[in-house]
Design goal:
The complex is a heterodimer of chains A (358) and B (277). Chain A has 10 helices and 15 strands. With 358 residues, chain A is α/β, with parallel strands linked by helices. Chain A has 2 domains: 55 residues, no CATH class; 274 residues, Metallo-beta-lactamase, Chain A (4-Layer Sandwich), CATH 3.60.15.10. In chain A, strand 14 and strand 15 form a beta hairpin. With 277 residues, chain B is mainly β. The longest helix of chain B has 9 residues. In chain B, 50% of the residues are buried. Classes of the chains: A alpha/beta (358), B mainly beta (277). The interface between A and B is large, with 53 and 43 residues.
């Protein structure tokens, strides 16, 4: 396994900060520090954030340094949406000190033998809070950390699970995509959320790459991981749980948060057509409610992407410019989504650059 | 899902400045170290135009740019020269002041550039909040400038294309579109597109984790028949898949030909016959 930190030091030589965080995390699983573990967990449950717990366990003075913008707060504990399937709903927004980078849905599936984590949140602290929730429910080993795609709000919590020595699993193209973006993702988002909340965060590229499809046995249940063709990004992976018939779609499905296009609008629309024809009990979107009915959850995304593609194609046909398309296309969707102003123009820009080659 | 929305200057900028080798448009690598609040223009201006007078916002050239870019790697820019100035327009230079290689492109007009309102539209990378300037040189030796401030960041280090495999598979593919429906009798419009990553030298190789050397479309010649519409010298500030939309003078005959060359010496050509020619 190797990883990126801001200084691009390889994980084989942890720096001081990483070593300290790793020590704290390791303490969770080691018998000699069981007391610290309970303190850490109760601190997290009390909504104080894991950093306090760690400081308390290491220094014995809990309130010496009150954290600014409790990075791990979120909206509390994960919800069990199906037997053994838990989802933590991230806050709606872009990275800010206020939300600490806890802005996407994360989840985990508990089998008879092992636990699989599905997305880890936007900082190591968010990942640590997720790990604490898992550890408050089960002591079974965390054998798999699966990322649905490359975006930082979904992968930057991976470092919290390093000490578990899991397989980090992603789409066959995830490693390359993350490598290309590692430095930017770390630098931009640290600036957005603040250095303290970002502490210990690094990019960990997958150790297991899914080329097409792969199954994971957790004991009494099987996860089926499917690498999708370019859609939301060029490295989207879906995860289906056999025991509950729940599908984690990652950012192939948004709800509330406007969809964001960083792959191919043609690919995304085609993939949603295919997926909408498949029957699953419910899905977990990348952003939005913990669980949604299927294929109903796909409809607003299909409508939005359809409006963007249709409007952009018309603009290109009529010989209008990208700037004009950005200002005019699919504005009727504005009231249907949150964060529309943040991402819609960029979506049009991306769709235009793709569709003008048709 | 999060895109980077804050200003940040990558250390890679220094590397980028370092790999620009003796290219005519390249300015001192010192430009790559520009702090956010430093005024880069006096130095750039001196390198490009020495002490010549530049008339600002006198209407000889107009610049359209977004106040805030939606995608810092693909920022649409349009430059226009009114008909009364077009006849004596000689060269148009697009400068993105805070970019590591500030001159995005210089367009030099030829006899087929036309006599009506002239337009050149392209897409650029903007690495940090920056003034964008269009400087027009006229045949009488005068300089005219229009300026817009663009809020965007990180454009130079954004990975090439959203689909990495496609970027490599289709390199060199070109498309030339003539806007028959929009054409005014005097100044028809056309658009040339090239599939090219236009590597800035600030992007990471996805397999090795090393910086990809700069490799970009460095020159382009656009002709109608045997007459030049414009030639362009470009740099890393032009977006991946360089895309230029332009007006040209209506003529009786001759197909539109575009020949582009990248820094590796690869040559790309596309031609198209206007309807009725």
């Amino acid at each position: 396994m190797w990883s990126y930190r801001l200084n691009r030091r390889r994980s084989g030589k942890p720096n001081k900060v990483a070593r300290r965080i790793a020590t704290g995390i390791a303490g969770v699983g080691s018998p000699g520090l069981a007391c610290d573990r309970r303190q850490a967990i109760s601190a997290a449950i009390a909504g104080m954030g894991l950093l306090i717990g760690l400081r308390f366990s290491l220094t014995g003075s809990a309130m010496a340094e009150a954290p600014t913008g409790t990075a791990a707060s979120g909206d509390g504990r994960p919800r069990e949406i199906g037997s053994g399937v838990f989802v933590h709903r991230g806050q709606l927004g872009v990275y800010t000190p206020g939300n600490g980078g806890d802005i996407c849905n994360t989840g985990f599936v508990i089998g008879a033998d092992a636990v699989a984590v599905i997305d880890t949140g936007g900082t190591a602290a968010v990942g640590r809070a997720l790990r604490d929730h898992i550890r408050s429910l089960t002591d079974r080993p965390i054998r798999y950390v699966i990322n649905t795609h490359m975006h930082p709000d979904h992968v930057l919590g991976n470092a919290a699970f390093k000490a578990d020595n899991p397989a980090f699993v992603g789409h066959g193209k995830l490693g390359a995509a993350l490598t290309a973006r590692a430095e930017r993702y770390l630098a931009f988002n640290m600036q957005a959320v603040g250095a303290e909340a970002f502490e210990g965060t690094e990019i960990i590229v997958p150790t297991v790459a899914v080329a097409s499809s792969q199954s994971i046995e957790l004991g009494g249940r099987r996860l089926t991981l499917t690498a999708r063709p370019t859609a939301h990004t060029d490295n989207d992976l879906t995860i289906h749980d056999s025991a509950t018939d729940i599908l984690f779609t990652g950012d192939l499905i948004f709800s509330g948060h406007v969809p964001t296009l960083d792959g191919s609008i043609r690919g995304w629309l085609a993939l949603l057509d295919t997926l909408a024809g498949q029957s699953v009990k419910q899905i977990v979107p990348g952003h939005g409610p913990a669980a949604m009915p299927w294929p109903d959850a796909a409809r607003p995304v299909q409508r939005y992407l359809g409006a963007v593609a249709g409007g952009v194609r018309a603009a290109i046909r009529e010989g209008r410019t990208m700037s004009d398309a950005i200002a005019t296309v699919a504005r009727e969707e504005q009231d249907q989504w949150e964060l529309f102003d943040e991402f819609h123009g960029r979506n049009i820009s991306a769709a235009f650059a793709e569709l003008e080659w048709e | 899902m999060v895109f980077e929305k804050t200003a940040f200057r990558s250390r890679a900028a220094g590397i980028c400045g370092g790999i620009i080798l003796g290219f005519a448009l390249a300015l001192a690598p010192a430009a790559a170290q520009a702090p956010a609040d430093e005024d880069m223009w006096p130095g750039i201006r001196k390198d490009l135009y020495a002490d010549r007078m530049i008339a600002e916002d006198d209407g000889a050239v107009a610049l359209e740019a977004p106040v805030r870019a939606d995608d810092a790697a693909v920022v649409p820019i349009t430059m226009k020269i009114p008909a009364e100035v077009a006849a004596k327009a000689k060269a148009l230079t697009l400068v993105i002041e805070k970019n590591p290689m500030p001159v995005a492109a210089t367009f030099t007009f030829g006899p087929a550039a036309g006599v009506g309102e002239r337009m050149i539209s392209t897409r650029v990378r903007v690495d940090m909040y920056s003034n964008v300037r269009a400087v027009l040189e006229t045949t009488d030796g005068n300089l005219h400038m229009a300026t817009k401030f663009v809020k965007a960041a990180g454009g130079c280090s954004a990975p090439a294309l959203k689909d990495a495999e496609q970027a490599l598979a289709q390199l060199g593919k070109m498309k030339l579109r003539l806007y028959e429906a929009n054409q005014t009798p005097l100044m028809p419009e056309a658009q040339v597109m090239i599939r090219h990553p236009n590597y800035s030298g600030m992007q990471m190789n996805q397999l090795t984790g090393l910086y990809i050397p700069a490799k970009y479309v460095q020159s382009m010649e656009v002709k109608r028949g045997n007459d030049v519409i414009f030639t362009m010298e470009g740099g890393i500030s032009l977006s991946e898949n360089p895309n230029i939309r332009f007006t040209y003078g209506a003529g009786d005959a001759g197909e539109i030909t575009v020949t582009a060359k990248d820094t590796d010496g690869s040559v790309f050509t596309v031609r198209h016959n206007p309807k009725g020619s």
